[in-house]
Amino acid sequence: MGNLCTCFSPKTPVKTKKPTKRLQGNPQTAPNSSNRWTRIRSTRKDNHDELIHEQALAAAILFRQHQQQNGSASGSFPFDRSVSLRYPNGSGSKKTQLPRSSSSRARSLTHPLLQPHQLVNQDIKLDDLETNHFVLVHGGGFGAWCWYKTIALLEEGGFKVTAVDLTGSGIHSFDTNGITSLSQYVKPLTDFLDKLADGEKTILVGHDFGGACISYAMELFPYKISKAIFVAAAMLTNGQSTLDMFSQKVAGSSDLMQQAQVFVYANGNNNPPTAINLDKSILRDLLFNQSPGKDVALASVSIRPIPFAPVLEKLSLSDLKYGTVRRFYIETPEDNAIPITLQESMINSSPPEKVFRLKGADHSPFFSKPQALHKLLVEISKI
Question: Where is this region: Disordered (predicted)?
């Protein structure tokens, strides 16, 4: 509104008759007397507020006249920049209203662009849930940092959230090349679950290679896990490794993953690789093809090598332990790292309780679709 007032207000001050009216109570005072100027100065503050109000009304009238002359608010008007965001279908009932840009005022946690109650049923009672504690497990090369939007949204809704850095990931100082087993890689997660009080349960969320990691933890601590949510993740069967899953030749799958992999041979070229680096020139197309540029920039300086030994290790999963935990899968249809065809192949091989599809999400939905992902996590917690 402030910008509209500035643009529509006259370039030179308009003389109003209001100060003269205020002087009518003293007709004996000369028009040019000093008393007149004193009175005008004393009322200038009040007149300023009234002038602003008049200018605002004038701006609104001119704006409406412009719309009527052009037949509709078609978007050609230079100030109507946010209508396509707020009213994508061009609702007629909104045409005569002044557009309000979301960027014209500072956002805060108490007034985000989309508030949690707009996404999630307000009637949710955390005390009625089996658990309100989410444990977020990142994928290969990522760290706890990748969940920063999800953490903020969940905590804003009253949930308890723990995001772990697996061994050699995020800010964990261990050298990735020294990781020789899946148990070593997952140790920060299993240590956390082991220290939970008896009877305390969590909802495990695994992304990418983190799916194999939460599966390993489900086999060890099924009684401490209420639900397991696989987000564009490796959901393996008994005796299968993550490498086995990625090696599947599924129709329509992308070769970007193979192109992006750069093997590290810390123990010499005659020995197996110790880690996998990802070519940063392909990173955006592989992992973040629908994500904001600032998140891609964060990832490009934060991603670390993926330990190779855990990717080779075959999982031992039993029906009596792993099989007793309720599983849910969130598909990412715009995924170039684990294509949707490969996701569906894993789902068909080991069907979870329910499958959700996150429309428009790339391999990193915590960046590309954070609010929609948040909504699904909360919905699953209520099932």
Answer: 1-39, 87-112
Marked catalytic residue, from 133, 138, 363, 374: 363
pTM for the model stands at 0.69
Buried b (16+ CB within 10 A) or exposed e, 276-299: bbbeeeebbebbbbbbeeebbebb
Instruction: Check if 363 is active-site.
Output: yes
Q: Choose the catalytic residue: 165, 208, 295, 362.
A: 208
Decide if 335 is catalytic: yes
Is residue 372 pLDDT above 70, yes or no? yes
Q: Which residues of 42-62 are buried (b: 16+ CB within 10 A; e: fewer)?
A: eeeeeeeeebeeebbebbbee
3-state secondary structure of 363: coil
Predicted local distance difference test score (pLDDT) of residue 16:
43
In the prediction, which pLDDT does 339 show? 93
Q: How far apart are CA 382 and CA 237, in angstroms?
A: 26
DSSP of 211-248, one letter per residue?
A: HHHHHHHHHH-GGGEEEEEEEEE----TT-BHHHHHT-
Residue 319 designated active-site: no
